[in-house]
Amino acid sequence: MANQHKLRVAVIGGGIGGLSFAVSLRKLCGSCVKIDIYETAHAFTEAGAGIGLWPRVWHTMEALGLADDLSAIATSSGFAGQGQQIELRKSDRTTHGGSALSVPSAVWTQLAGTRGFHRAVFLAVLNAHLPPNPSYTAHFHKRLVSYATSPSDPEATILTFADGSTAVCDLLVGCDGIRSAIRGTMYQSQPTSVDPIWSGSIAYRSLVPRKVLAKAYPEHPLLTKSLQVGLTSS
């Protein structure tokens, strides 16, 4: 086994998708694969709002051996359960004092086991469970430009990065987001553009300190409810 050729897997993108894939591959294949993760940033980082893991996804985390570490950082366990509640409100039809929209009970049943996480903290747990060297290597400041089949080995793929460097892999996995260089290269021969196109809709998310909200609207439902989701029609 020690002399057996390892499958060289290149993962483009070191976000939640890329690291989750690497952890899963380690669980399934052990040391039989060589994993290289190429990340544009200087380190594994995540920005944006929090995320929630539904029960089905949580079962996957358990199978990967992440449950204990993730449970320790979860911002809520049994979300929308244990007496908690989520309300949906349509902002163009109800005010902060209006009634919530009717939601089927089956939705609450599905949400009952949801756990919430901050993206960066969740990523840190994945990072801690990555395969040990030499089975895994992280490469930072690496922005993929394109890839192509190796002229000397039809089963190998050559990766070209913005800094002029190259790498070779047997399997290429794209986790590089909405402006994916892998997707762009794969479909560059298509007659239509594969670049992201604005749908015409915008989603706004913001944080308001509880004290500020309580001072402005002492009776606001958010002060007594666990979570409310606002919906607006365009």
TrEMBL record:
GO BP of this protein: secondary metabolite biosynthetic process
All copies of domain FAD-binding, residue ranges: 7-189
Protein name: FAD/NAD(P)-binding domain-containing protein
Keywords: FAD, Flavoprotein, Membrane, Oxidoreductase, Transmembrane, Transmembrane helix
Any Pfam family: FAD_binding_3
Gene Ontology molecular functions: FAD binding; oxidoreductase activity
Residue ranges crossing the lipid bilayer per the database entry: 7-25
Residues spanning the signal sequence: none
UniProt keyword annotation of rRNA-binding present: no
